[in-house]
């Protein structure tokens, strides 16, 4: 049976302040994993009051309630029915006041549960940030006012000059992207006759006491003769409140035309995409006669010889005012376009409508050009936020013509049968560096989980054919995947005898050579310099930067970097993306076709979706990887995921935060006091009967530090056996976590003193290993640290620069903790 996709049926909920809408939440049909649902931040002030704005779309609501939970342990804090809402024809507003049970400067999960007229419960999630004075409302008003002024070019738009930094860095030749460096005229839409089709709505990504990152999204129209073009607009603001005014730290606005199949899309043998991103998601058949491309969340397939354009997939049609269907929390990835114009692709993220409405996941689709139909082959549900799923799909995803799908999700690599939904785990518990894939996902390399520095073989999978081979290291060597140039794999070899642990406790894998092999396993190139070792590889656009070192007196000493350049060529490229300059729209994006076409004979196709009884689902949730991971957020957005905390902290040390798998924020870059000292730690505390003269300095100093921490945390009774655990070889982190179950350990070896100040500012001590002993940091000022040294029995100030040198010589071995309630 074929049919059109069913429209959205869920209500949607946003927050409202003085007529300004922010943090719209889209509904889920099932409960989600709140530890992985952090996205937008909803500030909660001293009055603990929020106003809910519910769009019902004419449907009755049977009930409304909300739950507040701890992000760390998912503990239910509040579950309250909402009865005082004001009901309209298509809208409901409700003021909710949360109970006085939430701690200052903490994040919590808020879930609004709506029961519709069919008694179906729908779940809406946001993250609450409790802070008394962040000037949030002032920030929100500034953003909305700034937006309003951009449409008042002949009036008060001149006020914006105060906030702009117009200079030569701004590109005033395109409306597609403008920023804080653009001219006032460009910010105010130049000569475009722009009108807003939808009201702007804000999304709050960051709201600290000093800065905020707020985005606005809306749709505008631009008339042209008897035609009107529509555009998605996204504005991003980073701002800071000051004395009597707001400071704009950064600003960017993007504008993307919504492709319209009605008219004017073909001109001069080009598909005109208009004002849109030049990085077009496009794939073509081998002869270039069929091409598929994505625009504004929709997939199109064009058959050049037959001059036929098919609108294959999209969640929205003509009504661009329905916020449910125009939700952009999803994307499309094209896997293949064959010579008949058949296309295999995935839609991943939030499902706005259709049979999977209100779910996150991956839908694998097949477009049959001959039948002009779209069939869903399998659906893979996902119970966390879209940003995590998007990250994994970017790492590896592919579906082939043999009905096999290969997906990397939550640290596991799966093979999914697209006909039956049956799944098998190819590799589990993979760390970040254990697996890499070609950009299109068609080639994958990985090593088996376990000790990534002790792999003797590397798997290489051709996902197009399903063929797998193993590349083995030579005797005495170990192997590690590095990346890909096109479909050619890059990997490194290191002698096992050279693999060591540095002073920070991190493994060094010095590769004496890098090799590049094609998809058949044939050697293309070997990179080797006698006596020079590659210790780290950093990927860039077609370039791999090689961090190198050489041995001097048995120690690896850094030498100059080198580079590997991608000389591979794309398989196809008969149709190309080009930019053109026009009088009315400045720079526009076009697809230049390989041969002439006739706009007057263009045929538009609208395929139907094939629907089967039942569903083809591959539920992987029970196979979730339990290995600890660290999630890096910069300006409120997930930018990377690491297996080592120090790597994550180093990624965000200029701004951002790090969370662990359990949802606890382990590090946040934010302003701290100029000085602080934990006054409660004024002496060493221990009743440990295991302390005696047989202990080494390292064992004794660690035991005293741990006991002092336990006393400080009110757990003196837990300290009696600490020495026994220390002498038995148990790690400091395990000893603390066993005795303090409400903390999350933060092993920050490899970081610097600067990052430790975040903890000291919160009255959290930091343990430091210095050579063969331990000390504890308990305070700081601009030039000094307060150091507690069990071997001398002293707690006093030391020069910060002297401490930096001492700690660095010992590998910067830092250990601390943070309350799970934080």
Number of helices: 9
Helix content: 10-25%
Given the helix and strand composition, which structural class is it? Answer: mainly beta
* End-to-end gap: 52 Å
Shape: globular
Total tally of structural domains: 6
Write down the overall mean pLDDT.
Answer: 93
By DSSP, the count of extended strands is 59
Unreliable residue runs: none
Instruction: Tell me the strand percentage band.
Output: 35-45%
Radius of gyration using CA atoms only: 29 Å
Detail the topology: elements first, then pairings.
Elements lengths: L1 E2 L8 E6 L2 E7 L14 E4 L4 E7 L5 E10 L5 E6 L4 E2 L3 E7 L8 E11 L4 E10 L5 H15 L26 E3 L4 H4 L7 E2 L4 E7 L4 E13 L2 E16 L2 E13 L8 E2 L2 E5 L6 E4 L5 E6 L2 E6 L4 E6 L16 E8 L5 E8 L9 E9 L4 E10 L3 H10 L1 E3 L4 E6 L2 E6 L5 E5 L7 E3 L5 E4 L10 E6 L4 E6 L4 E9 L2 E8 L4 E2 L5 E2 L4 E5 L5 E5 L5 E7 L3 E10 L2 E11 L10 E7 L3 E7 L10 E3 L2 E3 L19 E5 L2 E6 L2 H8 L4 E4 L4 E4 L7 E2 L19 H16 L9 H6 L4 H8 L3 E5 L5 H8 L5 E5 L2 E8 L3 E6 L4 E6 H10 L3 E7 L3
Describe this structure as you would to a colleague.
The protein is mainly beta and 822 residues long. It folds into 6 domains: 129 residues, Immunoglobulin-like (Sandwich), CATH 2.60.40; 122 residues, Roll (Nuclear Transport Factor 2, Chain: A), CATH 3.10.450; 211 residues, no CATH class; 124 residues, no CATH class; 41 residues, no CATH class; 144 residues, Cysteine proteinases (Cathepsin B, Chain A, Alpha-Beta Complex). The protein is 10% helix and 45% strand. It has 9 helices and 59 strands. Strands 53, 54, 55, 56, 57, 58 and 59 form a 7-stranded antiparallel sheet that branches. A 6-stranded mixed sheet has the order 1-48-27-26-25-24, with helices on one face. A hairpin with a 5-residue loop joins β24 and β25. It is globular. The model has no long low-confidence stretch (mean pLDDT 93).
């Amino acid at each position: 049976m074929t049919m059109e996709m069913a429209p959205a049926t869920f209500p949607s909920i946003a927050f409202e302040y003085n007529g300004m809408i922010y943090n719209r939440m889209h509904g889920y049909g099932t409960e989600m994993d709140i530890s992985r649902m952090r996205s937008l931040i909803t500030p909660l002030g001293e009055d603990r009051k929020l106003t809910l704005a519910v769009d019902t779309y004419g449907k009755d609501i049977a009930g409304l309630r909300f739950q507040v939970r701890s992000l760390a342990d998912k503990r239910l804090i509040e579950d309250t029915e909402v009865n005082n809402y004001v009901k309209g024809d298509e809208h409901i507003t409700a003021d909710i006041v949360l109970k006085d049970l939430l701690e200052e400067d903490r994040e919590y999960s808020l879930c609004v549960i709506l029961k519709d007229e069919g008694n179906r419960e729908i779940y809406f999630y946001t993250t609450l940030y409790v802070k008394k004075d962040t000037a949030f409302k002032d920030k929100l008003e500034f953003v909305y006012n700034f937006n309003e002024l951009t449409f008042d070019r002949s009036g008060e738009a001149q006020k914006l000059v105060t906030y702009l930094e117009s200079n030569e860095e701004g590109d005033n030749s395109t409306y597609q992207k403008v920023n804080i460096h653009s001219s006032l005229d460009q910010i105010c839409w130049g000569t475009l006759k722009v009108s807003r089709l939808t009201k702007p709505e804000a999304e709050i990504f960051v709201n600290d006491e000093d800065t905020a990152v707020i985005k606005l999204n809306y749709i505008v129209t631009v008339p042209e003769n008897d035609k009107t073009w529509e555009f998605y607009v996204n504005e991003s603001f980073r701002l800071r409140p000051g004395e009597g005014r707001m400071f704009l730290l950064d600003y960017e606005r993007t504008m993307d035309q919504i492709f319209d199949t009605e008219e004017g899309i073909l001109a001069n043998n080009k598909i005109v995409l208009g004002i849109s991103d030049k990085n077009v998601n496009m794939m073509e058949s081998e002869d270039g006669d069929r091409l598929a491309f994505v625009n504004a969340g929709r997939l199109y397939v064009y058959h050049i010889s037959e001059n036929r354009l098919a609108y294959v997939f999209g969640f929205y049609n003509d009504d661009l005012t329905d916020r449910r269907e125009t939700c952009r929390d999803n994307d499309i990835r094209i896997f293949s376009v064959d010579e008949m114009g058949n296309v295999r692709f995935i839609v991943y993220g939030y499902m706005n409508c259709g049979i999977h409405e209100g779910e996150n996941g991956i839908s694998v689709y097949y477009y049959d050009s001959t039948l002009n139909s779209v069939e869903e082959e399998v659906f893979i549900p996902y119970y966390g936020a879209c940003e995590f799923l998007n990250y994994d799909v970017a790492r590896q995803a592919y579906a082939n013509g043999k009905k096999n799908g290969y997906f990397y999700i939550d640290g596991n690599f799966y093979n999914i049968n697209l006909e039956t939904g049956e799944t098998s785990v190819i590799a589990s518990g993979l760390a970040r560096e254990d697996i890499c894939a070609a950009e299109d996902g068609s080639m994958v390399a990985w090593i088996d989980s376990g000790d990534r520095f002790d792999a003797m073989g590397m798997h290489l999978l051709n996902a197009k054919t399903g063929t797998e081979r193993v590349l083995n290291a030579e005797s005495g060597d170990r192997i590690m995947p590095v990346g890909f140039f096109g479909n050619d794999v890059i990997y490194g070899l290191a002698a096992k005898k050279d693999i060591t642990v540095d002073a920070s406790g991190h493994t060094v894998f010095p590769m004496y050579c890098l090799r590049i092999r094609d998809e058949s396993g044939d050697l293309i190139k070997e990179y080797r310099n006698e006596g020079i070792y590659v210790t780290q590889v950093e990927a860039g656009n077609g370039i791999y930067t090689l961090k190198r070192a050489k041995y001097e007196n048995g120690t690896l000493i850094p030498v100059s970097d080198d580079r590997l350049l991608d000389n591979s060529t794309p398989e196809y490229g008969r149709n190309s993306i080009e930019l053109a300059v026009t009088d009315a729209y400045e720079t526009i994006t076009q697809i230049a076709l390989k041969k002439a076409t006739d706009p007057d004979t263009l045929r538009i196709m609208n395929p139907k979706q094939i629907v089967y009884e039942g569903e083809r689902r591959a539920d992987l949730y029970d196979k979730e990887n339990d290995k600890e991971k660290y999630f890096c957020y910069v300006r409120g957005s997930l930018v990377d995921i690491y297996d080592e905390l120090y790597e994550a902290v180093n990624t965000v040390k200029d701004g951002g935060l790090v969370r662990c798998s359990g949802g606890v924020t382990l590090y946040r870059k934010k302003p701290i006091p100029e000085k602080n000292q934990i006054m409660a730690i004024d002496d060493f505390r221990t009743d440990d009967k295991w302390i005696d003269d047989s202990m080494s300095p390292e064992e004794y100093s660690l035991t005293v530090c741990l006991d002092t921490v336990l006393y400080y945390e009110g757990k003196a009774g837990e300290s009696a056996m600490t020495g026994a655990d220390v002498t038995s070889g148990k790690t400091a982190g395990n000893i603390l976590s066993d005795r303090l179950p409400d903390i999350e350990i933060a092993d920050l070896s490899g970081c610097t003193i600067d990052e430790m100040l975040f903890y000291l500012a919160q009255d959290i001590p930091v343990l430091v290993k210095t050579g063969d002993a331990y000390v504890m940091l308990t305070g700081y000022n601009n030039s000094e640290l307060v150091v507690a040294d069990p071997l001398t029995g002293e707690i006093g100030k030391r020069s910060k620069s002297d401490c930096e040198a001492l700690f660095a010589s010992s590998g910067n071995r830092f250990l601390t903790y943070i309350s799970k309630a934080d």
